[in-house]
Amino acid sequence: MILGGAAMQAGKEGKVGRKRKTGEYGIDIFMAWCKSCGICVAFCPRKCLDQNEEGSPFVARPDLCTGCGWCEIHCPDFAISLREVAGGRAQAEEEAE
User: Fold this and answer.
1) CA distance 79 to 56
2) Which DSSP helix (H) or strand (E) runs through 51?
3) pLDDT digit string (tens) for 7-40?
């Protein structure tokens, strides 16, 4: 099988058309909507979230967040959202280009 163009490029770089998120992200938890199910904590691949003694989620390690959105996607109550922090690394990189 002959690979050309994008397929060969994908082999060299790993993924085509995907840019890794490098910004700083804020995680907002709307406690009025949250039922403390722990799904956001369980799905966070970087372990940014944790639960307090009552089981309510909180942002324990915000610096580890990559903005993947797994917490936001899996929350059954839409009680968590992500936002890119203005002036974060991603904005600084865009201005440098």
Assistant:
1) 12
2) strand 49-51
3) 444 444 444 554 445 579 999 999 999 999 999 9
